[in-house]
Amino acid sequence: MNIRRSIRIIFRSKTYSLLNIVGLAIGITSAALIFLWVESKVNFNKAIPNSRNIYVSAYHYYPGSGECITSFESNNLLAKALDDDFPEVKSCARYNSETLVFVPENTTNSFEEKGAYADSSLFNMIGMEFIYGDISYVFEPQYSIILSRSMARKIYGNENPIGKGLVNEGAIYQVTGVFEDMPDNTSFQFEWLIPFRIMEQKVKKVFDIGEWGASWLHTYVELEPGVDLKLLNDKLDKLSFLKAGPTYKSFHIFLYPLNRMLLYGQYKNGVETGGGYIKTVSLFFLIGVLILLIACINFMNLSTARSQKRALEVGVRKTFGTKRKYLIRQFLVESGLITSIALLLSVGLIWLSLPLFNEFIGVRLSFSLLNPTIVIGLLVIGLFCTFLAGSYPALYLSSYNPLATLKMQKVSKGGSAAWIRQGLVVFQFTMAFILICSTFVIYLQIQLIQKRDIGIVKDNLVSFSVTAELYNSSSAVLNELRNTGVVEKCGFSANQILNSSMKTNPWVWNGKDPEDDAYVSVNFVSEGLIGAAGIKLIDGTDIDPTKKNNKGEAGVLINETLAKRMGKEGRIGGQIGQSAERKWEIVGIMKDFVFDDFYAIEPASALFFYDPKRTNLLFVRLKPDIETYKAIGQVQTVLRSFTPYHAFEPTFMTDDFDRLFENEHLVEKLSALFAVLAIFISCLGLLGLSAFSAEQRTKEIGIRKVLGAKIIDILFLLGKAYMVLLLISFVIGIPVSLYAGTRYLKDYAYRIVLSWNIFVGVALLITLIALLTVSFQSLKAAIANPVKSIKTE
């Protein structure tokens, strides 16, 4: 084995070596970026020291209709019951995340940060490290708050913030601790924590938190080591029934492993599907492997295509007694050297591209050669490429018969190597075709949903968080806003219009089908809310707080879907309630609007109560002919006149809507990026093969030109073989893409129809790119001087 000889051989063919190195480097870089992302998802929550013993509470609910609903939420009573009655449980922590605006005491600065209300037991459960403050004391003061290092530094710089005050909605929270920032790759992303008892006080104003059926928070549970989860879940199964009686016999509580939550936490009819985010992760792991395969195929193709130039070398060395195993080793060394150079180049490319990649997909991946996992991963990729890319050329070239090769008979026939080369080209472009088709399917599906008429007008709709002063003076606030001249309509709401966090059951009305036990999504609103959201009334009127029944309650609004469920009672003047003793009169029927599941063909049932004091958001529709930020400034002025200490940062409905499709957009972006890279790497190989083909047929081209062939004829001659290969790849790729697209779309009730336009368009695009690639070398050969090309030595 002579490494210097291998280096000389590599640098002797600079063009082909460069194509191999660049193709492999781009392939390794692409695959490495994908694998970094895959690794971050596979290891999600594993940065928490004891994550394997931490679980999240969930429940199955079996309504009378028979379909099971699974929710990863719990009621307020579960944590205490687990602590008191289950020795298997080491600790429990209630948790509810929220984004709040804080104003440092005696200042006018405001800081909007995501945080959570939690029990102090969470600190040790997830391994929080404190910089300032006593872990056993920080939640003792009634209104206490602890901050992350980043938030403390943002507000107070390098000053110790202990004892400082932060104002939120009139309450002054005392800073009692500062903790190290939580790792990015966990479920616990918060900049502040406030005792959960404060959240209890807030929620009590909205509904009875002592109900076992009122699920609105997360309960995290740490078990003692060695606990049998199945046996514990069997004990938990009837807990609601045992604690609250027969009313809750259809609620079945269970614990689910935190480490599995992201990837596998998907249920259908009470059964874990084995799917979830793991499908996306598996898809991109496969794409990473395919990108590596495509890059290795370039190496194999170019190596076997240039076999004639190496044939004499092999023949001579075999004649002088070199054994085949030494030749195989030599070719693998050459492959290893090229792969090593490509690997070193890819390390630099990863460093350069990672910040752009993070920004592109909205994550914070890190790359460090001090991380053993990353180093081992790169070495595995290098060995994979070395043996995959180098094995076939090594076995093929070392198999030449020395007598035949010295007479130039073996390689002149091409034979099996040419067929394998063509098959590999077909494989490359088939994979590229499938990736690009998949990208288009995902893009078109997202566009279908985003252009769907959801019954809500998103443009110019802005929301603000609500303070106690605002909802206590709701009528005055609404009147002041309407008088600004920049507001078209406005109203208060308990929930985001696009999401419903309150689904309740059962409901009763006259003539109800006994089998109908489906949920109804409930919202608490003020007058003007449906107008601000752009929801249309098809019958009746908006909620009018001045018109009340004999119990002092305003009427309710229902949507079309609920009206149809109610049959004859689903009309203006009809009544609906949660018991026969307490019902509300229907004053208006809203046109259906889509919320929660934007892929559903028919929206869910919705019911709106009048109750501004239970609201959390103010929705304002701005007039379209006024500059947006000027209008927002006037709205903020009005709101601050009621609550001077609050910043009132706006949230645009269009942004909220886009955030609902973050996962789909991520899949679309990654698919598009790596589809482009796949076609680029494939074209690098095609460029090398076309250059070699033109070089091999130099004399033939010269003779044809002398005999009168035109440039276009030469281009057709050199390109037609590749066009046939592309056609074969399309024939294979279309049914595979159709199958993959159908599988992807089957999870969506509201979906696009796959048409031939997608496949034909992608085929034409790839054909155009391939033609441009091949034509670059073919044109050089076609315009060359024929006298030089046919001149003999």
Automatic annotation (TrEMBL):
Chief location category: membrane
Protein name, as recorded: ABC-type antimicrobial peptide transport system permease subunit
Protein's membrane topology: Multi-pass membrane protein
Organism of this sequence: Parabacteroides faecis
Compartments where located: Cell membrane
Transmembrane feature ranges: 21-38, 281-300, 331-354, 374-397, 418-444, 670-693, 714-736, 748-772
Record keyword Flavoprotein present: no
ABC3 transporter permease C-terminal domain ranges (all copies): 286-402, 673-786
Domain MacB-like periplasmic core: 17-238, 511-635
This protein's UniProt keywords: Cell membrane, Membrane, Transmembrane, Transmembrane helix
InterPro entries listed in its UniProt record: ABC3_permease_C, MacB_PCD, Macrolide_Exporter_MacB
